[in-house]
Amino acid sequence: MPPVKQESASAKSMSAKTPPAKKPSPSETARAARLAEALRENLRRRKSQARERKDGEDDKDAGS
Question: Which of 18, 20, 21, 34 is the most buried (most CB within 10 A)?
Fold first, then answer.
């Protein structure tokens, strides 16, 4: 029986490469676009609310 060749641990890890990055599916791309738009809309709404609150505080100060 011939001797069995043993690979070192470093040789095994060298041969194990990470798979190439997958191209996102159309549904994943569409979901990412919907999420991005929802985040932008949420930011617009929060900024508008903050401006309204600030304007309300200014009105109180001017009236006193």
Answer: 34
Among 23, 55, 3, smallest CA distance to 63 is for: 55
Domain boundaries, the chain: 25-64
Amino acid at 28: E
Structure confidence at residue 46 (pLDDT): 98
Per-block mean pLDDT, blocks of 10 residues, the chain (64 long): 62 68 92 98 97 84 59
> What is the Cα–Cα distance from 27 to 35, expressed in whole angstroms?
12
Tokens 């900024």 sit on residue: 47
> Taking the CA of residue 13 as centre, how many other CA atoms within 13 Å lie in the half-sphere pointing to its CB?
3
How far is the C-alpha of 48 from the C-alpha of 44, rounded, in Å?
6
pTM given for the model: 0.53
